Amino acid sequence: MMMKFYVASKGDHKSNMIKSMVEKYLLDLDLEISQEAPELVISVGGDGTFLHTVHDYFHRLEETAFIGLHTGHLGFYADWLPEEIEKLVIAISRRQFEIKEYPLLSMSIHKEGETKPEKYLALNEATIKKIEGSLVLDVKINDMHFERFRGDGLCVSTPSGSTAYNKALGGAIVHPSLSTMQVTEMSSINNRVFRTIGSPLILPSHHICQFVPVNRDQKFVLTIDHMTKSVENVVSLEYTVAKERIRFARFRPFPFWKRVRDSFISDEY
Ligand code: NAP
Predict the structure, then answer these.
(1) What is the active site of this protein (predicted)?
(2) Does 68 lie in the same domain as 27?
(3) How confident is the model over 39-59, as pLDDT tens digits?
(4) Which one of 33, 147, 164, 184 is separated from 262 by 20 to 30 angstroms, measured CA to CA?
(5) In whole angstroms, what is the distance from residue 207 CA to residue 247 CA?
């Protein structure tokens, strides 16, 4: 069966040129373009582009595998260079790749008067902040009251998102083979009256973390990867490691710790 693919572009000149080039090569090799039902999606741009692209295919995670080509700096998701296109398209046409699955985060928003929660998946993280004033909410782990948080916000990240916002918040970098989620604080208030744990928490896949607003009149700003939404009348927010997983097409070894070193330390070794 002919493989169906789709190439998504960041939209700038260089990424569009590379998109056209990849499409031409793959069509010449008898593959078929399908935006609706691709088996393989090639995202051309950066990690930001990759996030946008993946969200468009969250409804078919079991059927679609992803690969990222970067047109700026080395990315965590976009880790192929434009110079490697020919090698890549040949490997694609021969189906010479393995599938690596990484965990995703699941978030449910439970609102007053609504029986069904709103559900979201995140590849990097989900955060909660307040528009005005401090965020005040109870953090529960597996239904046990853990702490009352006061501060700027909280971030719950996936292992592959641990190198993104989570890292800027002082969270640990977590290998994506571990099915975990990590909760990090944004400027918590800690004094003689208010107390939070202060350290990032890494939870296993069978644990549930809940944020329960102390006051339901509060308006919150939620982010899910690149998306932002404001919500009110929130009864609770529930986070777990998702049952769904993202599938990466791996054409050559590129160990996670090498990507971490090359991105944050140096690639001159
Ligand atoms: P953006 O603000 O335009 O870009 C955020 C930066 O994060 C880009 O440089 C992007 O890389 C990089 N990035 C994305 N995912 C990454 C990952 N898994 N590991 C390492 N770096 C990663 O926003 P955007 O492009 O829409 O991306 C949304 C993401 O921005 C969020 O999911 C969040 O993780 C991140 N963010 C970070 C901070 C912070 O570090 N203080 C604050 C807000 C949001 P590329 O340049 O390759 O696209």
Answers:
(1) 47 (proton acceptor)
(2) yes
(3) 999 999 999 999 999 999 999
(4) 184
(5) 23
